[in-house]
Design brief:
Number of strands: 21
Number of helices: 14
Helix content: 25-40%
Shape: globular
Strand order of the largest sheet: 10-11-9-8-7-6-5-2-14
Strand content: 15-25%
Radius of gyration: 21 Å
Largest sheet: 9 strands, mixed
Distance between the termini: 15 Å
């Protein structure tokens, strides 16, 4: 079985459905305020806090971030962020119970330790953050002072996600991110010593000058640091949308066959080392909560990728942050200046969003279960949504070629991906995407 004909198709990662390119200005701040006011006061909630600053730009980056060489812009942004926290909290009926809190970026740890402590205190003052809540932060190991590690621990952070990408010096030079193994190991040791026990690493394949051998060498070096989870993403080269990616030379990028070989080699080595394969691109130790969630069909997927977070509501805070509520999606203005101006005027900075229909919710669950479980019973999901069996039968015509090639199995209303073809999860999920534009250039290759 070989997914070669499909691996170069550019497809969404399906961290939401519909995906962010379909958000529009028809949903704005007034809609968001109304949706917040309709939330049940006891509804378990997740918070995402976005910090859109870095000290230097990694050329592979696809995130909403900007380079800040001075602290002034960061301090001004924090003022706006505190104002947004107050405004959101004022629009909800009660102090919502928070089960998950994730700081992403950019580089969340770019702020001063005292500023992080103040931010955590403010969040705890406006939301009912559970004592056993998962509080996670994304970390650039190249810039993490001992004082910041102490502030993270004091703030209740219990999971840290470290960007590694590759330890190959040639690759690091090609992506403008020089990061040594010793540097990364020192941060891991410091976090664990402070009581932040759950450690995740992010790796990327398909980077310039990357080879199977260098990918495996990076994995071996990571294994020596024993992270609890490892995420392995395929590099999305979209220089039309991310101008800094133009610094990467096209001729140095591996082709589709090489990308697939790298992804498969990394997966094989991690499985051989005892990690459980989670969905499309995550790996976890057997005792990790994510591995347990997958075993019990409790795995979910959101804008941070695979997660144990089952909350129906995700409140996004910060410039470009996306929120998900039962009614639909909202996204803040991506331009930091405009985001701050809205808040200075006492207005929610919502720039666009999407109102979910009943059919959207049906398709979203089908796609999430496919991405998480690698199989789905369509009729069972239709029954949960109160719609007739066979409602999504048109998708099976698009899946038939994959079944004939042995990549998936179709049985009645069920779809099952074979373990060796799980890299095609996005291709299979796309059969249920009613809005997919096959010519979209902003998405990454399927493998």
């Amino acid at each position: 079985m070989h997914p070669a004909p499909y691996r170069d198709e550019r497809l969404p990662r399906y961290t939401s459905y519909p995906t962010a390119p379909h958000f529009g200005a028809s949903v704005g701040a007034n809609d968001y305020a109304a949706w917040l006011g309709e939330l049940p006061p006891d509804l378990d909630t997740s918070l995402y806090v976005h910090m859109p600053f870095c000290r230097s730009m990694c050329w592979y980056c696809g995130c909403h971030t900007t380079v800040a060489l001075r602290d002034g812009p960061i301090e001004a942004y924090l003022k706006a962020l505190h104002a947004e926290i107050d405004l959101v909290a004022a629009n909800v009926p009660a102090s919502l119970p928070v089960r998950h809190l994730h700081f992403g970026g950019g580089t969340p740890t770019i702020i001063e330790p005292a500023d992080f402590a103040a931010l955590m205190a403010h969040l705890r003052g406006r939301f009912a953050i559970a004592r056993d809540a998962e509080i996670a932060v994304e970390i650039d190991p190249r810039r993490l002072a001992t004082a910041m590690i102490a502030a993270l621990a004091a703030g209740g952070v219990n999971r840290a996600s470290l960007g590694v990408q590759s330890f190959d010096p040639a690759v690091q030079k090609a992506i403008n991110r020089i990061q040594s193994l010793d540097q990364t190991g020192a941060v891991v040791e410091g976090l664990r010593s402070a009581g932040i026990a759950s450690i995740s690493f992010d790796l990327i394949y398909g980077l310039p000058l990357q080879t199977v051998a260098s990918c495996i060498e990076t994995v071996e070096q990571c294994l020596g640091l024993a992270p609890d989870r490892i995420s392995v993403f395929g590099y999305a080269h979209v220089p039309a949308f991310k101008k800094h990616q133009r610094r990467i030379r096209d001729e140095e990028l591996p082709g589709g066959a090489a990308r697939q070989e790298q992804a498969e080699a990394i997966a094989e080595r991690l499985v051989a080392a005892g990690y459980r394969r989670i969905g499309l691109d995550h790996f976890a130790r057997p005792g990790d909560a994510m591995a347990q969630a997958q075993a019990e069909n409790r795995l979910h997927r959101n804008f941070q990728g695979y997660t144990t977070d089952a909350c129906q509501t995700l409140i996004g805070l910060g410039a470009s942050a996306i929120g998900r509520l039962p009614q639909g999606y909202v996204q803040n203005d991506t331009v930091i200046g405009r985001y701050s101006e809205f808040l200075a005027a006492g207005a929610l900075p919502t720039a666009k969003g999407y109102r979910l229909s009943a059919e959207d919710k049906l398709r979203a669950e089908v796609i999430e279960r496919l991405m998480c479980d690698m199989e789905v019973d369509i009729d069972a999901i239709c029954a949960r949504h109160g719609v007739a069996a066979g409602t999504l039968s048109s998708a099976f015509g698009r899946l038939q070629p994959l079944a004939e090639e042995g990549l998936i199995t179709l049985s009645g209303a069920s779809v099952r991906m074979h373990d060796e073809s799980r890299l095609m999860a996005r291709k299979v999920a796309s059969a249920f995407d009613a809005y997919l534009d096959q010519t979209a250039r902003r998405f990454s290759p399927a493998v």
